[in-house]
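writing this on my phone so excuse typos. first protein, seq and then structure
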Amino acid sequence: MAEKRPFDVLNNALNNSVLIRLKGGIEVRGTMASYDVHMNLVLENAEQLENGELKRKLGTMLLRGDNIVFISPA
């Protein structure tokens, strides 16, 4: 299996649903629209989750890369 670089993984996540945990324990789910070299992300149709359940809809949002703990396919 070919070795993957971090940006290859992010590139494969574009236009797909992702689950993101932020510092402070906040979880957000949405469609990853874009990212940059600082790992700042734009999510569309974003939703805040609490205990895996929908808490509120957020719409389109920008997440600063230094606040992201992990990104996972949703």
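second protein below, same order as before
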Amino acid sequence: MGLSGRLQHRANRRLMALLVASVLLMLAVAPLHAQSEVAVAHTYTFGQTAIFTVTFPSAAAPDTATLYLKVGTYTQIYPTAVIQGVGQYERDLREQPFSPFITISYWWEYKDAQGNTQNTAKTRFLYEDNRFLWQTLQDNHITVHWVAGDKALMLNALDIAQTALDNIQKTLEVPSTGPVTLYIYPSLPDLQSALRLTGREWVGGQAYPEIGVVLLAISPSSEATVKMKRDIPHELTHKVLYDFTGPQGYAALPTWLVEGLASSFEYSPDPAYTLALQQAVKDGTLIPLETLSHPFPEDYRRALLSYAQSQSFVQYLRETYGWTKVRALLQTYADGVEDAVGVKQVLGSDWAALERAWRVWLEQDQQSGNAVSATWSAALLVIQDLAPWLVLVGLLFLPMLFTGIGVLARR
């Protein structure tokens, strides 16, 4: 073979190798190209339904696809039939609700034409109350969303939130919190409709500290600033406590301590607390403090009294033992210590003695202008606490008393 023949042979070999490489490359890219044509979408109506959809090219559609839905820290799996190239999962949010304003992520898994498992890219979205058109203000790590009211009022809300956070962190000596987002609804019914699935429709605010979200109902009225000074610090206290103690520590805190602290940081305390407490003292219907370690009753009146007693009890602890002991209680309970053990360990008192002392303090505080009345009320509390023992002693001495009477009669 001459030189020209050898050169032509080499050229042919190179051309063949190039053709083979091109074919292999096309085969390798084909599944990726098919995957890139897979489309995902989602839509929802807040509190009603959420729909997740995956659409395949008709020529490469599988029979089934699996939706992976991550809500918070939990991933749920939903195998879904693919019909005419479309797989769709519909979730009834009245039966399986999402927490308001939580971030949700999802992706689909399926097998391509070659039988290989493929996954779509993860999609994330905020489950926001899309019934309203939200306006936004932000300052550092605090964000305020609102519907009605002027910008000046919301700037005031930002200032109140920042001041409250600084005060709570300084008082409790805890580090700075993460980002906080406030959603301010224009009316209580609007907020209650968002909270309907929580079972506590009557509340005027709700904190979701695990996601750094606070929901409030503040109408743009002359009372708006007063309400913001009460509700914003209260709900932000939950966020500070959660960030300080962590998920498990926060869950271990007794409710009276969490809500009592939150109420203590309010700049304009709710007068309904004072009225409820005064009436309960008058009627003798105070709730035993130890039962307030658990979630408060759903009934409005009992819940209001629970908040009022918790606020009063924390105030008593602050005035009697100081913030140092309150912080020590906070840390002790966050470590998983039981309620009664915690007060004994930190305050050196059992529940019965501590509650008796608080009730005496409460009576004296409400009757500070009448020393005789306060002393008599304190004595009555002691007699009430000792009543079971006095009855027992009386039963033991009754036979002796009757015997003595009989002897005297015979004489």
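The chain has eleven helices and 13 strands. thats all i got for now
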